[in-house]
């Protein structure tokens, strides 16, 4: 049931025409121009609208008839067997729900595009509870009391489902339900197709299973119904694939109803004999009494204590309904041309259930079948929903006479047709192009539904979805980047010539693993393998830095693997540094008895962790680098200009300064033009982030140069530089360098060259950072 792009545009213009007021400048709310929408006038009585109203009415009539069939069959989920006598009141409850759901769908805003209906998943749950109630009450209570208690059960069910769905939508919890993989959604849709096909065949054969269907083939009435319904389904399939008009299929069905009525009148067949031969609905009640079912007078008959015993099942009812609603919306979303607001749809469904609950009606949520029917014929959703409400209301008020207007094979034929189309579109289409594991899951879901039932299939689908998620997530792995300490280093090293020279030689002693995503038992194992590979492959390795800054979560089982990683590393004489593990993770690890600070070095961010790792390596191989010895500014200037004479002239042009810890040397946004060289101590560079907080960009140690941007570009200061410790700097103002340029041009030029090289180096550093972050 997929559309091409042109058809999608038409659908949008159609929804727009029926649901929104005229938007500005000749565009509808989806940006489709009027010309695209067919160039027709938007007057209420224009030909464009009339055609779509007709389409809405005829599709709505079909959807309404389908809702009727479904109401009868789903009522049997509760009111069959021992509760059979209460069938009339049960049918009234189901029809009443269908009416209210139809009205809510028709009244809901233009952004919604789905149709609500009573749902078998929820009703079957209530059926199981109703049976349990009956078993508990049958010896002590009257039939009326049991009936009243079951009605109250349904009302409570609707109230719970309503509250649950509304809360999920209100607090945007749908994102947690959205992990459902595509193969599970298409498996669900294919199962809906199968169930439609199956119920069509069973309805026509008058059977309740495979065995009785085969037996029914000896009954000429059943055979004639099957042939009639099958023929209609075939005609619908042919007409749908051949005809260009969307009205063709609805018109065929309306024509079939008309022909049936003409044949009855003409042949003089009595309704009784048609009922006997199963050509019209037979088990419908003559008149529907007790409206609303949960009248205040009946509340006294309810056994509330017995109801309380069903509380655990109520939780299950809400959970399965929420999952069913999510699956239904995911299925609709796949086929629909519009993006939907799932949270708003959940709230809608919740509110509708809360509306039906006080009346004693049954719960429901979005209907894949009815919504897809409207989408298939590109009929205005609101008109279709209103028609469903109207058809169910007529059946509710007039009972049997209305239900018997339609021939039974028509219901069956429609179900078979929709079932075949569903299986074709959702099971077979794209099956071969899918990943084999996904195709197998889809086929298994359908098989479980065929062999054991819908409920079991959905539970299997949820489990298979979770399993696939774990499998694929574990395979993706959490290690997004493995990089050596030579390629990526701390900002302190980046801006310190001595550290930079040392890291070029010793950087391979450090390996950085950048993690991303969720670390759980599946993905943590992949991390351990990476660590083991690194330990085995590089003898020079001294430190592994694991960066958790981008990790969304770590679970308890992963903590055990982290402990094992620590053991592997210690055995190889390698240190493990963890960076960016949140306080929350550390606490939860401690709760599991895992003391991370005992076996690992923990730092709040990568910069600090890397600095520690570099210091460890330097202290073993280059102790002078770590000592952070003060730098002689004169020696620094000699290195910068290449000459002692030039360095002496430059040194005389600048001045020495001292800052206390925390004091700002440069303030972001201010206009000043001096540059600085760190002689002793540390300074940090901070920038105001888009969110208003401070981001640390780098740390400068002895030998680092800063303030060169405003100095060279004459722009306001790009960041704040603040003393971290007591800080000694050498400062050179632009005016001092300018006058030096006149007196000693060679010194000024050599220094300018040096500055250019430093800037180029900074660009390379930025590139390394981008490479690190872009994985
Ligand atoms: N991303 C960065 N990494 C290192 N240093 C920086 C960074 N951004 C700004 N700076 C330094 O901070 C100084 C702030 O003043 P300036 O803009 O004059 O010059 C700036 C640079 O020297």
Automatic annotation (TrEMBL):
Keywords from the named record: Membrane, Transmembrane, Transmembrane helix
Disordered: region residues: 1-33
Keyword DNA-binding: no
GO-annotated cellular components: membrane
Compartmental location: Membrane
SMART domains linked to this entry: cNMP
Major location category of this protein: membrane
Transmembrane helix found in the keyword field: yes
Record membrane topology: Multi-pass membrane protein
Domain STAS per the UniProt entry, residue ranges: 508-613
Residue span(s) of domain Cyclic nucleotide-binding: 649-740
Residues spanning the membrane: 53-80, 86-109, 121-137, 149-168, 180-202, 222-239, 251-269, 304-324, 383-399, 405-423, 444-471
Compositional bias annotation for Basic and acidic residues: 1-15
PROSITE patterns associated with the record: CNMP_BINDING_3, STAS
Protein name stated in the entry: Cyclic nucleotide-binding protein
């Amino acid at each position: 049931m997929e559309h091409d792009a042109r058809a999608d545009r038409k659908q949008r213009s159609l929804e727009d025409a029926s649901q929104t007021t005229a938007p500005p400048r000749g565009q509808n709310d989806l940006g489709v121009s009027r010309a695209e929408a067919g160039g027709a006038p938007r007057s209420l009585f224009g030909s464009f609208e009339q055609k779509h109203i007709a389409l809405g009415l005829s599709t709505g009539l079909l959807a309404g008839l389908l809702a009727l069939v479904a109401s009868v069959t789903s009522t049997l989920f509760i009111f069959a067997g021992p509760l059979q006598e209460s069938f009339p009141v049960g049918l009234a409850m189901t029809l009443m729900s269908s009416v209210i759901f139809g009205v809510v769908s028709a009244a809901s805003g233009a952004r919604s595009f789905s149709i609500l209906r009573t749902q078998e998943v929820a009703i079957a749950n209530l059926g199981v509870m109703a049976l349990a109630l009956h078993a508990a009450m049958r010896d002590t209570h009257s039939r009326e009391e049991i009936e009243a208690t079951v009605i109250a059960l349904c009302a409570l069910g609707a109230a719970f489902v309503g509250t649950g769905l509304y809360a999920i939508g209100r607090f945007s919890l749908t994102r947690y339900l959205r992990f459902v993989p595509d193969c599970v959604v298409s498996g669900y849709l294919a199962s809906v197709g199968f169930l439609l096909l199956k119920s069509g065949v069973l309805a026509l054969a008058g059977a309740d299973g495979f065995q009785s269907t085969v037996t029914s083939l000896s009954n000429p009435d059943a055979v004639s119904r099957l042939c009639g319904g099958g023929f209609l389904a075939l005609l619908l399939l042919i007409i749908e694939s051949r005809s260009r008009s969307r009205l063709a299929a609805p018109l065929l069905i309306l024509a079939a109803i008309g022909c049936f009525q003409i044949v009855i009148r003409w042949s003089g067949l009595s309704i009784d004999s048609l009922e006997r031969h199963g050509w019209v609905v037979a088990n419908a009640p003559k008149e529907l009494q007790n409206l609303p079912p949960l009248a205040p007078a009946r509340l006294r008959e309810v056994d509330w204590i017995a109801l309380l015993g069903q509380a655990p099942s109520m939780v299950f009812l809400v959970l399965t309904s929420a999952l069913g609603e999510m699956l239904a919306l995911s299925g609709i979303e796949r086929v629909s041309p519009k993006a939907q607001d799932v949270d708003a749809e959940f709230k809608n469904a919740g509110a509708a259930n809360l509306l039906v609950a006080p009346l004693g009606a049954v719960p429901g949520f979005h209907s894949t079948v009815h919504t897809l029917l409207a989408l298939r014929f590109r009929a205005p959703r609101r008109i279709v929903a209103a028609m469903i409400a109207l058809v169910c209301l007529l059946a509710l008020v007039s009972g049997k006479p209305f239900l018997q207007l339609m021939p039974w094979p028509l219901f069956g034929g429609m179900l078979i047709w929709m079932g075949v189309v569903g299986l074709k579109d959702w099971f077979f289409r794209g099956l071969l192009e899918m990943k084999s594991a996904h195709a197998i899951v889809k086929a298994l879901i359908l098989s479980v539904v065929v062999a054991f039932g819908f409920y079991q299939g959905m539970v299997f689908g949820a489990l298979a979805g979770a399993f696939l998620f774990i499998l694929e997530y574990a395979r993706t792995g959490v290690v997004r980047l493995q990089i050596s300490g030579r390629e990526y280093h701390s900002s302190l090293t980046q801006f310190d010539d001595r550290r930079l020279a040392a890291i070029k030689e010793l950087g391979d002693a450090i390996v950085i693993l950048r993690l991303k995503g969720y670390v759980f038992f599946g993905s943590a194992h992949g991390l351990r393998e990476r660590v083991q590979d690194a330990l085995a492959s590089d003898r020079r390795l001294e430190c592994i830095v694991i960066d958790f800054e981008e990790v969304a979560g770590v679970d308890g089982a992963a903590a055990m693997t982290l402990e094992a990683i620590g053991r592997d590393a210690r055995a190889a004489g390698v240190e493990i540094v963890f960076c960016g593990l949140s306080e929350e993770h550390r606490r939860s690890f401690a709760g599991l008895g895992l003391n991370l600070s005992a076996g690992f070095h923990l730092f709040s961010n990568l910069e600090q962790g890397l600095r520690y790792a570099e210091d460890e390596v330097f202290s073993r191989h280059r102790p002078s680098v770590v000592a952070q010895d003060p730098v002689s500014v004169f020696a620094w200037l000699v290195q910068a200009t290449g000459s002692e004479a030039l360095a002496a002239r430059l040194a005389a042009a600048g001045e020495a300064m001292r800052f206390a810890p925390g004091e700002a040397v440069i303030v972001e946004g201010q206009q000043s033009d001096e540059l600085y060289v760190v002689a002793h101590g540390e300074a940090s560079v901070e920038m105001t982030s888009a969110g208003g907080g401070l981001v640390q960009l780098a740390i400068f140690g002895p030998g680092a140069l800063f303030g060169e941007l405003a100095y060279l570009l004459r722009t306001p200061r790009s960041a704040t530089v603040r003393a971290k410790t007591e800080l000694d700097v050498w400062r050179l103002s632009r005016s001092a360098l300018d006058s030096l340029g006149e007196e000693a041009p060679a010194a000024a030029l050599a220094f300018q060259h040096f500055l250019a090289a430093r800037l180029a180096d900074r660009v390379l550093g930025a590139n390394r950072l981008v490479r690190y972050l872009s994985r």
